[in-house]
Amino acid sequence: MKSCWEIHRLVSEGQDRKFGFGERLAVRMHLLMCSACRRFERQMKLMRQALRRFPGE
Amino acid sequence: MTDPDVQQSLQRIRPTLLRFAMLQLRNEAAAEDVVQETLLAALEGKSAFSGRSQFKTWAVSILRNKIVDYLRRTSREGILPLLDEQGDEDFDALFDGSGHWQEVPGDWGDPAVVLEQRGLYDVLELCMKALPENLARVFTMREILGFETDEICKELKMSSSNCWVVLYRARMRLRECLQLRWFDAR
To answer: What is residue B181's predicted lDDT score, i.e. its pLDDT?
Structure first.
């Protein structure tokens, strides 16, 4: 199983490229079981949404 | 809208446009130029603005395109500074020897609520300004201007893996800054 270190890198990369089947599965499995990495993933999503809305309003 | 209305609205949002452009170009003369071009294009194209969207949103979308054009031009001229080879040690320190988080990432709350908080965008701007230029250029192309990653790599003549690493580093820095300046500060 991949470590949190590997997963957090992949969560970032997942915002920039398409995963293969194996990678997608590994990330999803890990996120199901790891609340710390889920939080990290939510942070990354929130940053993306905020930047899309920038400059705000 | 009548002409004077459009002109007034443009003058009102000019500072916002300038800030937006400065953040991405980090060059005052270049930012002034793209904003000027945007104001002209907005005046010329005012009939295209039918009030469907907010006036500011419309002007920002024109500005985005002007910034994209500018970046395309200058990246071809090779003005972009080369990426440093500095490692990721700073971020590796967030993990222990077996790759677990040293400290669990913070709970940033409900995005629907957070994204509506006005001050967030000022802090976001501050944190974006704090990014080193080489990271910021790639990151804003990706996240604010919405380029596809392949496109960025091609424009900037970087390998894909280099692109991903740069985007990763930018995200990690931005995350750290937002945690400190926004989420911890509230």
So the answer is: 96
